[in-house]
Amino acid sequence: MIRGRLTMGEMLVATLAIIHHEILLFAVVGLTLGGIDDFIVDAVFLCRRGWRNLTVYSRYARMTTATLPASPNPGRIAIFIPAWREADVIGPMLRNALAQWKIGQYLIFIGVYPNDDATLNVVAQIAENEPRLTLCVNEKPGPTTKADCLNLLWRAMLKEEGRTGCRFKAIALHDAEDVVHADEIRLFDMMIDRFPLVQLPVLPLPGQGGWWSRAIANHYCDEFAESHGKSLTVREAMGASMPSAGVACAFARDTLEKLFDPANGGPFDPISLTEDYEVGLRIADMGGRGVFVRMRDIDGQLVATREYFPDSLRAAVRQKARWIIGISLAGWDRMGWGDGPTEWWMRIRDRRAALAAFILFAAYIAFLLWCILHVGAWFGLGRAYRPSPTVELLLWTNFAFLSWRVIMRVVFVSREYGWRYGLGAIPRTFLANLISLFAARRAVSRYLDSLFGKSLVWEKTQHRFPPM
């Protein structure tokens, strides 16, 4: 009887070993391809940075907003701020923006909804005696999509142009929780002369509260420090399309007009959940070139938009699921692949999130099975698992890529937030992976629902604004 149980145990362990080998092979191949992809981006960034340091910055000082010349063709900037249930943050955000930008050539358009009295009342009180603000109430009850609200603001801008006879030069986008920089309007005004899309960095504010909330919020710091410190720089340098982040960005007014669709009532597609990302790609498809600008002010601070990101697991998963749906899943068939190998490569990078999460899940399953097999070996149920030479080589390759990725993450986070936050990025990597797995699962589920007729709507993220 005992021998029979051992035989069944050995058979089970042997079966698990076969399953483990197949899952592990899939995971290590996928991780290796992803590692090569990331390493090439790192290599391009480091080579470009070294070359510019030798050929440009060794002879010329880096430009700051203190030395930034005025635009030879100054114009009025329209700032679009869509707001759905933002009563807690829209007031402080607007007061800070008006204080930072002071009197200038801009007009803020704020889109609210008739069934959101709290936000409407806050904005109405501020706009009552403020000529730099225009309150726009959507004819439809909320929530709609953010793109639908942006189209409302586009139509309000056209009415303002008709009333004054003065066309706007550019449209800048912000969210209701953004902490804006005083110099961004001048920077937009200058750069729009040369580029139809200008994107500035976004820097998440470090989290507050307990360690769990801080860790969730701070993993956004990690990702944006690397993405907006390296990846977008490489993307621009290689001539690929520049996706808009939806905040801290500006579009040439004439360029957006070319995207106008009467059926949508504006240049943004109202069924899209990532309208900002798509507009950047559509501009590139028309032949326009976007630019990512990292410039510091007179105090050495980066001209960037700062904001709090979600600090709860549920909110982070919901937000990232929306990004995956709009970019990785719906974007696949909505936006195509563009022209040329560089554009193909960058769009593959944009859309790999769902597949990367699946590969990551397979890697964790393979690790769990490896632990089970070793426990079985301790009890005499088979031998300890030893991978094939090919798999072992790939495992060591992935370990090298992982070590390199951690070093790069620490460097970029330390550059923006200090070395303590940089070192903290190491354990937060595992949390980021967990959030990505949950977000991918939710994204695939919601995307499949949409294929069967369920509408995608603006999922609310609760925002906070720092005390100023």
Automatic annotation (TrEMBL):
Report if keyword Ubl conjugation is assigned: no
The name on file for this protein is Adsorption protein B
The family database entries (Pfam families) matched by this protein are listed as: Glyco_tranf_2_3
Keywords in alphabetical order, please: Membrane, Transmembrane, Transmembrane helix
Q: Which Gene3D superfamilies match?
A: Spore Coat Polysaccharide Biosynthesis Protein SpsA, Chain A
Ranges that cross the membrane: 12-36, 355-381, 393-412, 418-440
* Originating species: Sphingobium vermicomposti
Instruction: Name the NCBIfam families on file.
Output: PRK14716.1-5
Is Ribonucleoprotein among this UniProt entry's keywords?
Answer: no
InterPro entries per the record? Answer: Nucleotide-diphossugar_trans
